[in-house]
């Protein structure tokens, strides 16, 4: 019995084949007098392969009408050069079997659907052209992430998903508890008694693996994490998800400069990988999603990214002659409108903004030496790209114990909760730096898909957690 041939291998064949076995789903069927054309897709690539089922096949009369769009089908036959236009190979069926029926209620009939509708059928949308392409690219780039770091002698560290520490000190965390919410145990002063909870303390879903990553960078030198991350921020935008995947390298003996260079190399590596290994899927996006996609990706590959300090960025924004919804002033955070102006209108290229005001950035970032007190900055960097804004946030970390404690005090953090983090500065501390790349934002950039809900299999956003 022949083993299964994937459609992508059949389409890439270099010679005809006598007995092949195809398994997949019917995309379309056209019936002529003496035969039917069935387009079979198995998800291995964008295209389907054309199968010709002759009316002389023994089960033709009984079965062909069941080969509806969406039905699972198995075909045995010959791979032969195609007579028709647009494809090199087709399959002459010697037998076909309907494995799983789909009737006329199957929602993915040939006509185009809106992305909003497809989100409601997230259990079926991977079978559409667009989402098949998105999730093949997602898989390929996840592989490329590991390749990039493994080639550079980084070790992959699995940081915990349940954590008791707030890595960003921003407080947007999901609580993890097994307490009976209707009747929680209470302390004498009327608070919920977290010591009676599963872990004996308050716990949360992680917002970042960075702090644990730093532990491992102080042992293995170069590490990265790649895992799910959770933020309970109530931002209903096309770029925010409550559950997303983040890649976080952490490098010992590295400063902000080295960090920015690594980030740039990483982003370019992923783009190049997709250009090489996902060519057909990217062409599909360029045709149906974003016609400038390929030119933009190639442009980004060629150009060195601009580096611009926060202070310079504020000057550029102030002198732009634009009216901003969020006023521009030294000390205020850059908003999406500012980020997009810098990359899309001013520099017209990806921009790394660095050295941000200390007060608006996380407690662990390294204080820049020699600043005027009212203009104290930290060695932070954000990589901004056209169309999306921030895809990477990173920094050189504060490796000096006293300065780190001062940063924690500034952000009103309890040192006791971070005792182990402070220990890293007591025992063999070194300059070190790292960053986080939002995997979905990278996928949006590479595919041109405009909404984060459409690059993650099952989106978790405020008010939605279906499937
Ligand atoms: O800038 P952020 O918050 O940085 C950190 O978490 C650091 N601990 C990273 C580090 O230095 N190791 O997040 C990093 C990136 C952002 O640039 C963005 O791409 C993505 O994570 N991100 C989100 N993606 C989707 N939905 C959200 N709600 C996101 N929040 C951040
Ligand atoms: Mg950030």
The SS-based structural class is alpha+beta
Mean pLDDT: 96
* Global shape: elongated
Radius of gyration: 27 Å
What order do the strands of the largest sheet run in, or round the barrel if closed? 6-10-11-16-15-14-13-12
Strand content: 15-25%
Q: Which ligands accompany this protein?
A: 4-amino-1,4-dioxobutan-2-aminium adenosine-5'-monophosphate, magnesium ion
What is the chain-wise order of helices and strands? HEEEHEEHHEEEEHEEHHHEHHEEEHHEH
Describe this structure in words.
Strand 2 and strand 3 form a beta hairpin. The protein has helices spanning 7-11, 60-63, 115-120, 129-151, 210-220, 256-277, 279-288, 293-302, 310-318, 336-346, 401-410, 419-426, 439-447; strands at 17-31, 35-41, 49-54, 72-81, 89-100, 155-156, 162-163, 175-176, 203-205, 222-230, 243-252, 306-309, 351-357, 377-385, 389-396, 432-438. The strands form 3 sheets. It has an 8-stranded mixed β-sheet with strand order 6-10-11-16-15-14-13-12. It is elongated. By secondary structure, the chain is of the alpha+beta class. The mean pLDDT is 96. The structure holds 4-amino-1,4-dioxobutan-2-aminium adenosine-5'-monophosphate (4AD) and magnesium ion (MG).
Question: What's this model, at a glance?
Answer:
The protein is of the alpha+beta class and 467 residues long.
Write the layout of secondary structure elements.
Elements: H1 7-11, E1 17-31, E2 35-41, E3 49-54, H2 60-63, E4 72-81, E5 89-100, H3 115-120, H4 129-151, E6 155-156, E7 162-163, E8 175-176, E9 203-205, H5 210-220, E10 222-230, E11 243-252, H6 256-277, H7 279-288, H8 293-302, E12 306-309, H9 310-318, H10 336-346, E13 351-357, E14 377-385, E15 389-396, H11 401-410, H12 419-426, E16 432-438, H13 439-447
Parallel strand pairs: 3-5, 6-10, 12-13
Antiparallel strand pairs: 1-2, 1-4, 2-3, 4-5, 7-9, 8-9, 10-11, 11-16, 13-14, 14-15, 15-16
The structure holds 4-amino-1,4-dioxobutan-2-aminium adenosine-5'-monophosphate and magnesium ion.
The site of 4-amino-1,4-dioxobutan-2-aminium adenosine-5'-monophosphate has 23 residues, from β11, β15, β16 and α13.
């Amino acid at each position: 019995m022949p083993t299964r041939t994937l459609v992508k291998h059949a389409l890439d064949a270099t010679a005809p084949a006598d007995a092949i076995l195809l398994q997949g789903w019917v995309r379309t069927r056209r019936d002529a007098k003496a035969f039917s054309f069935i387009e079979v897709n198995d998800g291995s690539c964008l295209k389907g392969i054309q199968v010709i089922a002759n009316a002389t096949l023994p089960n033709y009369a009984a079965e062909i009408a069941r080969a509806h769009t969406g039905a699972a089908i198995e075909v045995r036959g010959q791979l032969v050069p195609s007579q028709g236009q647009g494809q090199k190979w087709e399959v002459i069926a010697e037998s076909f079997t309907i494995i799983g029926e789909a009737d006329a209620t199957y929602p993915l009939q040939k006509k185009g659907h809106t992305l909003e509708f497809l989100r409601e059928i997230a259990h079926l949308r991977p079978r559409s052209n667009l989402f098949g392409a998105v999730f093949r690219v997602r898989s390929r780039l996840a592989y490329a992430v590991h390749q990039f770091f493994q080639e550079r002698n980084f070790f992959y560290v699995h940081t915990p998903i349940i954590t008791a520490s707030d890595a960003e000190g921003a407080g947007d965390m999901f609580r993890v508890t097994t307490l009976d919410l209707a009747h929680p145990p209470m302390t004498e002063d009327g608070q919920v008694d977290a010591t009676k909870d599963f872990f004996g303390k308050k716990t949360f879903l992680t917002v970042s693996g960075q702090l644990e990553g730093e532990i491992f960078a102080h042992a293995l030198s170069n590490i990265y994490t790649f895992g799910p991350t959770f933020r309970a921020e109530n931002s209903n935008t096309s770029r925010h998800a409550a559950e997303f995947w983040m890649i976080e390298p952490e490098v010992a003996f590295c400063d902000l400069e080295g960090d920015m260079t690594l980030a740039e190399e990483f982003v370019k590596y992923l783009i190049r990988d997709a250009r090489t290994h996902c060519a057909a899927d990217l062409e599909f996006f360029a045709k149906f999603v974003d016609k400038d996609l390929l030119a933009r990706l190639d442009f980004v590959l060629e150009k060195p990214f601009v580096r611009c300090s926060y202070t310079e960025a504020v000057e550029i924004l102030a002198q732009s002659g634009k009216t901003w919804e969020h006023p521009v002033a030294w000390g205020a955070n850059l908003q999406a409108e500012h980020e997009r102006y810098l990359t899309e209108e001013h520099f017209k290229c990806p921009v790394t903004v660095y050295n941000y005001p200390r007060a608006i950035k996380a407690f662990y970032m390294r204080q820049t030496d020699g600043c005027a007190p009212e203009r104290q900055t930290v060695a932070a960097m954000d990589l901004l790209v056209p169309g999306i804004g921030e895809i990477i946030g990173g920094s050189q970390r504060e490796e000096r114990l006293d300065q780190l404690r001062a940063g924690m005090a500034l952000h009103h953090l309890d040192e006791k909760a971070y005792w182990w983090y402070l220990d890293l500065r007591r025992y063999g501390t070194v300059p070190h730096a790292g960053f986080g790349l939002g995997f979905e934002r990278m996928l949006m950039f590479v595919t041109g898909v405009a909404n984060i809900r459409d690059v993650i299999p099952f989106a978790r956003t405020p008010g939605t957690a279906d499937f």
